[in-house]
Amino acid sequence: MKNSEAWSHYNKYTDDLNKFSRELGLAGSAICWVLKDSNGIFPKYVLFGLILFVLFFIADIIQKLIGALRHKCWIEKREAELWNSAKTIEGEYLKPKSLDKPAFYFFIIKIFFLLLGFVVLGASILNKQLNY
Question: What is the pLDDT of residue 130?
């Protein structure tokens, strides 16, 4: 397997994970709205779950923003260096692994918020079922 193929597989997994996690985040948020009490108030654990889903979406946005900004700055710097040396911006760039680290950390954080949100909702639903 070529390096480009390996990264293509990785990108497929992360693209799918991003897509499905956003759908699950929306579903989890909708479940929170359904679990409001008869007065329209969120029970404590349901509210906590909703907050976790909101944090998931915030981390998702920050992940994409950090990734885009870091890549833009890095690419523009490489283009300027290449332009100064060869009067062109077309060439080979050696991308450092550290460039993706902050975005990857937010990728992990957002998945953690999503999973924890469902754990909290599950515990809330289970607790409610046991109290009846």
Answer: 64
- 35: enclosing H helix or E strand: none
| 89 phi/psi in degrees, rounded to 5 | -105, 0
DSSP state of 2: -
Question: How does pLDDT run across 52-89, given as a tens digit for each residue?
Answer: 999 999 999 999 999 999 999 999 999 898 899 888 88
Residue 16 DSSP one-character state: H
Rounded to whole angstroms, how far apart are CA atoms 67 and 55?
18
d(CA 62, CA 9): 24
Helices (H) and strands (E) in the chain, counts: 3, 0
Residues 56 and 62: their CA atoms lie apart, in Å, by: 10
* Token pair listed for 28: 């989890």
Q: Among positive and negative, which fits the CA dihedral 54, 55, 61, 64? A: negative
